[in-house]
Structure formats: structure tokens, C-alpha cells
Design a protein that fits this description.
single chain, 123 residues, mainly beta, 7-stranded mixed sheet, 11 strands, 0% helix
């Protein structure tokens, strides 16, 4: 089994910064795309940032220039540096990995999600 564990959420005033981390453990063969998503109350889950296995990054306009996604493949860890935070960034943030795991000699490719971490930005 594979588990993703997020950390780094919390409360901050507008203009502040937070750094989220997501670490995967389990019998992982390879990790392809990794991403951060968020869901605010009453809203759909939305993409915040994505990074490919080759390091290509994607951001929506709402966070471009303020958020930076990065990955450490040696540690199976994903990061999200969030600067110049705004109240509208308040949400539960989830990490997601598309990865291949190995169990009893069989390879499985699937999407895995973390449990979510709350980010609250006050004005």
C-alpha cells in the first residue's frame, strides 16, 4: 500500500507565506505526475500546481507568480511554497501522485491522494 502524508498547513495573515510538504511511503516503483489541489467550502476541488516527472510545472492564473511547486524524487516528496497569500487561498489542500507501486511482483499504476491540510489566510 501507498500512503501520502501532508504537512505544513496552518493559519497566516494576508501577504504571508506557508510551505506545504507531501511525503509518500510504500513500495513505490516510480512517480509520474505530482500535484497540489485545493477545495474551499462550497466549491469544487481545483488544481493549484502540477509538476511532471521531467520537472515541467503548470499553474492556474490565480496562483501563478505566487506559488512554486517542486519535488524531491529521492525522498518521494512534493513541496508547495506559497507566498503573498490571499484570503481567497483559504482551503483544504491535497497532494496527489500518479505513481506505480509494486506488490507481490505485480505493478499497479494509480492516483493517490493525501488526507488534506487546512490553510487559512486572514485579512
Amino acid at each position: 500500500q501507498v500512503h501520502l502524508v501532508e504537512s505544513g498547513g496552518g493559519s497566516v495573515q494576508a501577504g504571508g507565506s506557508l510551505r506545504l510538504s507531501c511525503q509518500a511511503d510504500g513500495t513505490i516503483f516510480s512517480i509520474e505526475t505530482m500535484g497540489w489541489f485545493r477545495q474551499a467550502p462550497g466549491k469544487q476541488r481545483e488544481l493549484v500546481a502540477r509538476i511532471s516527472s521531467g520537472g515541467r510545472t503548470t499553474y492556474p492564473d490565480s496562483v501563478k507568480g505566487r506559488f512554486t511547486i517542486s519535488r524531491d524524487n529521492n525522498k518521494n516528496t512534493l513541496y508547495l511554497q506559497m507566498d503573498s497569500l490571499k484570503p481567497e487561498d483559504t482551503a483544504v489542500y491535497y497532494c496527489s501522485y500518479n505513481l506505480t507501486s509494486v506488490y507481490s511482483g505485480t505493478y499497479y499504476t494509480d492516483d493517490y491522494w493525501g488526507q488534506g491540510t487546512q490553510v487559512t489566510v486572514s485579512s
